[in-house]
Design brief:
With about 200 residues, the protein is an all-beta fold. Helix content is about 0%, strand content about 25%.
Length: about 200
């Protein structure tokens, strides 16, 4: 076992070459978050966040919460990484009351001698414009930006909510603050055009 936070869009706290590292594709995420590690029978690491994928031929409107957060850890464990949120439609309308998150899980053990890690943030991607196909048709282009100027494509992207949250999990280790937070994940806004040319991914 280990005290390493799970990784996905961002590294988990205390990540090493074999665990807690970044994974998946920021532009087209498709993986769950990794679970946090544990090295004690007195607790467990948090589970990684799952996958929320919603696709529509017309419009998607979000006024509530869409969440793929990693789970918080218990004693002597580390946080799970945030998962994936992928929304794709001809129009994306996200209202003022909406909350979209893929955060890493937190941990706060009582012992100051334990060094733990927060979960890494997940990955969120939005697609608007022409309907997406996994086998991208010839002549269709994709443009991905961060941050994205919604006014570039009026009527297709409308975001009135706070920015999506892909923050890394907070980790504290008792009074000595031995916790290492997880890294922030990724957010991408992608526009799909019908136009001659090749596939274009701008990261």
């Amino acid at each position: 076992g280990n005290y390493i936070g799970g990784g996905h869009g961002g590294k988990g706290g205390r990540a090493i070459a074999s665990a807690g590292c970044v994974s998946d594709d920021a532009v087209r995420p498709a993986l769950v978050g990794a679970g946090g590690g544990t090295a004690s029978v007195y607790g467990r690491g948090g589970a990684g966040g799952g996958i929320v994928q919603i696709a529509a031929e017309g419009a998607i409107r979000v006024d509530g919460t869409v969440s793929a957060d990693g789970e918080n850890a218990t004693e002597y464990g580390s946080g799970g990484a945030g998962g994936t949120v992928l929304l794709e439609a001809r129009q994306l309308l996200v209202g003022e009351t909406a909350l979209i998150t893929a955060k890493g899980g937190n941990v706060n053990p009582s012992s100051a001698n334990i060094i733990v890690g927060g979960g890494g943030g997940g990955r969120i991607a939005f697609y608007a414009g022409r309907p997406w196909s996994a086998a991208l048709p010839r002549g269709r282009t994709v443009k991905s930006e961060e941050p994205f100027a919604a006014e570039t494509y009026p009527g297709e992207f409308l975001f009135l909510c706070p920015p999506p949250d892909v923050s890394g999990g907070i980790a504290t280790g008792g009074t000595l603050e031995h916790g290492v937070p997880g890294e922030e994940g990724t957010v991408r806004y992608c526009h799909v055009n019908e136009a001659p040319g090749l596939l274009l991914l701008v990261r």
